[in-house]
Write a structure and sequence with these properties.
The structure holds 2 protein chains of 2 kinds. By secondary structure, chain A is an alpha+beta fold. Chain A contains 10 helices and 14 strands. The two termini of chain A are about 35 Å apart. Chain B is about 30% helix and about 25% strand. In chain B, the strands form 2 sheets. Chain B has a 4-stranded mixed sheet, covered by helices on one side. In chain B, a hairpin with a 2-residue loop joins strand 7 and strand 8. Chain B starts with a helix and ends in a 9-residue tail after the last strand. The chains are: A alpha+beta, B alpha+beta. At the A-B interface, helix 2, helix 4, strand 3, strand 4 and strand 5 of A face helix 1, strand 1, strand 2, strand 4 and helix 4 of B. Strand 4 of chain A pairs parallel with strand 2 of chain B, so a sheet runs across the interface.
Chain lengths: ~475, ~160
């Protein structure tokens, strides 16, 4: 989850979130600003209409007018009568103007005076000193008996403060902003929900695909619903099923082949034991046999030994393949073990051994013996003397190097030297070895492991010529483990 | 996605720009005709900077057209003069006689002993409007009736008050 969120800046989740938020904000802004503008218009219109009505009502009480032109006192009195809590009045007659009551300086605009002079009631909103004001102006005309009227020259202006209306409108605006914020939150919540609905199957799919890639072929997805994502999940399941069946088939065939080799090897063992017994007798008698018969007896004896070796190696290999090979671990003095290996095979005098004493490691002594014997034997057979065996050890690893002074290994064959039945010298169709020795040694080295560290066998060439086989086995003096 | 976002932003900005916030100043809005009401007193027309201006004298006086013309011929009083009102009607206009027709729409005729043709056109308008107003108030004629002024030197062509 966190991986997804952090890894994809513009992932599906973010895009969905942005889209929803944008949609929510746009819709709310459109609706809220529309209703805000309308409500404002209504509020202002009501206030203006009410003010105009109230002014005309008050003005009817001014009549009848008895004297023109008025004196300054008349104007002031009239203005005072028309002023109330909500505003004040300015009365104008030609160049005269009522004095007093003016909360703001010179509120009348020329365009308003022009309209009023034309004989109609007119009003206008203006801003003075940061406050909104409403100006309403009218002339006072005089009725003549037959319904027409004459302008008297008197103009009355009512100036009202619109701050209460402004406050109502501001409250509206605040509410609109709150609604917008709320809808944004709602949109984000919805987006998260939608993203979860879409992303969960995608995430499941990704996780399943990763598991499949890591080799868990039994991975399946739960198919939910009937949408496109469900189709993808179904396809994934079908693919995984086919893959599992085919891989299972391949594995079965491979294990059949391996079991066949193992079975054949085991079946060969019994007759071989009998044959070995016979050839032992033949060996003893060979010297007394004349000419060809003696040579034939010796040949049969040697080939029987080779066959026995091959069958034993095959059995060993089939144990590795079937995974039944087990380490028999013991605390081993490595120098002593290597020396014993050399001594048993009578190589102690021919090998230049550098074996510092006191290196104790937890190993399988039989497998160590097999590896060292194979490496040293190979050095004698394919390389040239002197052959050296060198033991080194640190806290983590035991390293044994087997080197000879021969021509070394062709770099082209280096990758294949541990392959089964691989013959470096193709001219030699028959050799003393079974062709499985290095493969078995390699498997034996790999069998030793400790934690993440695994034993290894590496082939290479020394700078001065000659092949060098390096065996490294993991070591942990503190821990007695290392077994499989 | 970006184009959509830009579009939405544009719409939003336009809305905000046209809507604005709070109470905005407005143009002048006009409504009904101006407030109108009765007057009491004698209406005379004087001149202020060449324009006809209505003046109301207290109602104690007789509101007949002849009396109104007499008051007009007497000229502006002290208060009116102080406010810059003048008259071009000569003081020798008085006395006058007024004849009205049988109907309210018939012409009015003002007869005077003074010269009529030599009156300035503004003085004639003063006389015509004052007479028409007074006649309308007393129910003799309509406000828009044409008035003929006949003097010692002949008559002026009939003419209605230019204000109505």
């Amino acid at each position: 989850m966190t991986r997804w969120a952090s890894a994809r800046v513009l992932g599906l989740r973010v895009r969905l979130l942005l889209t929803f938020a944008l949609l929510g904000v746009t819709t709310t802004a459109a609706v809220a600003s529309g209703s805000y503008v309308q409500a404002r218009t209504v509020i202002l219109q009501q206030a203006q209409d009410a003010a105009v009505m109230s002014l005309t009502d008050q003005l009817t009480k001014v009549y009848p007018i008895v004297q023109l032109p008025p004196t300054q006192a008349d104007l002031d009195l009239l203005a005072q009568r028309l002023s109330d809590r909500q505003g004040f009045a300015v009365v104008v007659y030609r160049d005269m103007r009522s004095s007093g009551g003016a909360e703001i300086a010179d509120p009348l605009t020329p365009e308003l005076r022009r309209e009023v002079g034309d004989g109609r009631i007119a009003w206008q909103r203006i801003a003075r000193d940061g406050q909104p004001w409403l100006l309403i102006g009218t002339q006072l005309t005089l009725e003549v008996s037959d319904g027409t009227s004459r302008p008297s020259g008197l103009e009355v202006y009512s100036v009202r403060n619109l701050v209460p209306e402004q406050q109502s409108i501001d409250r509206l605006a605040t509410r609109a902003w709150q609604t917008g914020g709320l809808s944004l939150i709602l949109a984000v919540l919805l987006a998260l929900l939608a993203a979860r609905g879409v992303l969960r199957p995608v995430r499941d799919l990704g996780r399943a695909a990763r598991r499949l890639g890591e080799g868990d072929l039994s991975t399946r997805l739960t198919v939910r619903g009937a949408d496109e994502l469900a189709d993808v999940a179904r396809t994934f399941n079908d693919t995984a099923g086919t893959l599992e069946r085919q891989v299972g088939e391949l594995r079965r065939m491979e294990s059949d082949a391996r079991r066949f080799v193992a079975d054949v090897s085991h079946e060969l063992r019994t007759p071989l034991a009998a044959m070995t017994a016979v050839t032992d007798v033949l060996d003893e008698e060979a010297e007394h046999l004349p000419g060809d018969a003696g040579r034939a007896a010796r040949l049969v004896s040697r080939e029987t030994q080779n066959l026995t070796q091959l069958v034993n190696d095959l059995i060993e290999v089939s144990r590795f393949d079937s995974g039944t090979a087990r380490l028999a671990l013991d605390d081993v003095d490595v120098a002593a073990a290597v020396t014993a290996t050399l001594r048993i095979r009578g190589w102690l005098d021919r090998v230049r051994a550098e074996l510092p004493p006191g290196v104790v490691a937890r190993l399988d002594p039989r497998r160590l013996d097999v590896i060292v014997a194979n490496l040293v034997g190979n050095a004698f057979r394919h390389g040239a003397e002197p052959v050296s065996v060198r033991l080194r050890a640190d806290a983590d690893w035991v390293t044994i190097e087997v080197a000879d002074q021969g021509p070394g290994l062709d770099p082209a064959v280096l990758p294949q030297v541990f392959d089964r039945f691989y013959k470096a010298d193709t001219a030699r169709t028959r050799s003393e070895g079974s062709g499985l020795g290095l493969a078995i040694s390699w498997e034996n080295a790999r069998l030793h492991h400790h934690g993440d560290r695994r034993g290894s066998l590496v082939a290479g060439n020394a700078p001065g010529g000659g092949a060098v086989f390096t065996l490294r086995l993991p070591r942990d003096p503190a821990d007695a483990g290392g077994a499989r | 996605m970006t184009r959509r976002a830009l579009l939405a932003g544009g719409v939003l900005l336009t809305l905000l720009a046209t809507g604005g916030c709070g109470v905005r100043p407005s143009e002048v809005i006009t409504g009904r005709p101006a407030v109108s009401g009765p007057s009491r007193g004698v209406g005379l027309y004087l001149l202020a900077e060449g324009e006809l201006v209505l003046v109301l004298r207290p109602a104690s006086a007789d509101a007949s057209p002849a009396n109104a013309l007499a008051l007009l011929a007497a000229g502006p009083d002290e208060n009116e003069r102080k406010q810059g009102l003048t008259s071009e009607v000569p003081a020798g206009l008085d006395p006058v006689t007024l004849t009205s027709g049988a109907n309210r729409s018939d012409d009015l005729t003002v007869r005077t002993t003074a010269a009529a043709r030599s009156l300035s056109s503004r003085a004639a308008d003063q006389i015509i409007c004052t007479v028409a107003d007074a006649a309308a108030q007393s129910g003799l004629a309509e406000n828009s009736t044409a008035v003929t002024i006949v003097g010692s030197d002949g008559a002026r062509p009939p003419r209605p008050c230019p204000l109505s």
